[in-house]
Amino acid sequence: MKEKWLLHKIRHGDMAALDTFITQVYPTIYAFVYRKMQGDDSAKDITQEVFLRFIRYLPTYHEEGKVIHFLYRIASNLCVDAYRKQKLHLMEDSEAWMNGLGDDIDVHESILKQCAQETLLYNIGKLPLPQQDVILLHYFHQLTYREIAQVYDMPISSVKSRHKAALAKLYQMMKGANY
Question: 15-22 long-range contacts, Cβ below 8 Å, gap at least 24?
Answer without folding.
Answer: 18/55, 22/51
